[in-house]
Amino acid sequence: MSSSIARHPSTHNDPHWKLRADLAAAFRWAVRMNWHEGVSNHFSAVVDDDGGKRFLMNRDQIHFSRVSASNLLLLDADDPDVMDGPDAPDPTAWALHGSIHRRVPHARVAIHLHSKYATVLACLQDSRMPAIDQNAAMFHDRVIIDEHYGGLALDEEGERCAALFTDPKKKVMVMGNHGVMVIGDTVADALNRTYFFERAAENLITAYMTQRPLRVLSDEIAAKTAAEVESYPGQAARHLAEIKLILDKTEPDYAT
What are the Class II aldolase/adducin N-terminal domain coordinates in residue numbering (predicted)? Predict the structure, then answer.
């Protein structure tokens, strides 16, 4: 077995157990939000605080509803030999998430989804998100739009996508003709951002469907709103805490 992979650590000896539980909770909540894509898509979280590039990620071909704290892989973004091991991750996940965690130090957590409305947005010729409501305003000047889909995120494509995260302020990437990638400082931060981006995309696509003119906020108000949301105290952490309280009652095995 590759030394880059940890199997079933216990709550007593794994220093990353809380992070494991947080990430597992994010997977379970994604199922409730209907964001899963069969056995595809991946979330990852860096475990090191000292510049190391080890990260947790879901196993190859496992449904989000079965992800738990103990069955997450522990990988090293600088160890390509992991792909030769018995518990090798999905190759597209390794290429995309491994590239992000090698190249983007501010991407402590990365959530990749083909969620319905974000993916619809990614399929439009104009994938920008005008600030038509408070949720959309949260993302004013904070979104990367990738218009150069090159097939499955293998090798060069994974590196190309990761290289787009050059501005630490821009933590959402609309992956044209593909889906969405959201990065964050913590699981709570990334999951909360994912939730509101999908909500904002749903509102926008629904508004487009009316074929009526949009009432778009000014850049000044949108920028003010985005800054206010970023400085709003504790929302992301509280959001994840509430999710875990719900899961503790209904799916407690996420934390096992």
Answer: 21-205
For residue 202, which of 98, 99, 129, 113 has the smallest C-alpha distance?
A: 129
User: 200: closest CA among 177, 224, 225?
Assistant: 225
In total, how many domains does the chain have?
1
Report the alpha-carbon angle 239-118-37, nearest 5.
85
CA 40 from centre of chain: 13
Environment class of 13 (CB within 10 Å of its CB; exposed 0-12, middle 13-18, buried 19+): exposed
For residue 113, which of 31, 230, 205 has the smallest C-alpha distance? 31
CATH assignment at residue 134: 3.40.225.10
E strands of 140-239, at which residues? 143-146, 172-175, 179-184
The pLDDT of residue 6 is 41
The mean of the pLDDT values for the chain is 94
Q: Using one digit for the tens of pLDDT, what is the confidence trace for 228-256?
A: 999 998 999 999 999 999 999 999 999 99
**Interatomic CA distance for residues 116 and 136, integer angstroms:** 16
Which residues of 98-203 form beta strands (DSSP E)? Answer: 109-113, 143-146, 172-175, 179-184
Range of the domain at 130: 17-255
Assess if residue 12 is contained within a domain. Answer: no
- pLDDT tens-digit readout, 4-14: 334 444 555 89
> Is the pTM value of this prediction over 0.90?
yes
In 3D space, the residue among 113, 112, 123, 115 whose CA is nearest the CA of residue 34 turns out to be 115
